[in-house]
TrEMBL record:
This is SRPBCC family protein. It comes from the Bacteria. It comes from Flavobacterium suaedae.
Amino acid sequence: MNLDSPKVTVEKSQQYIFESLSEVKNFEKLMPDNIAKFEVTRDESFIFALKGMPEIKLKMKEKSPYNQLVLGAASDKLPFTLTGNIKELSENSSEVQLHFEGQFNAMMAMMVKGPITKFLETLAGNMHKL
């Protein structure tokens, strides 16, 4: 299952966005209002939970300065990645798009598509908070 957030323009440099997203603690600023838990577990991993949903642990998998970061599920039960693509528009302006890729069976994909799509939209929409 592949899902993309809308592309958002952020009035920050590409390097600033990349470095902000490289620090996983900053993902708390991007989370939706219905967050029930957010905890940094190591330098490059964190656990979060939305109300009514199970906890998810993410860890930094790859970094390609200053264009892309890839976070992945720390558990093999629900294998997925969350990729942040950052494109420079000008010296102080960047375009950010999030890409979710998960390997789910058809039933699971049907159940999670809506909530994940909304989650991606929220994360992207909150990029200006960095």
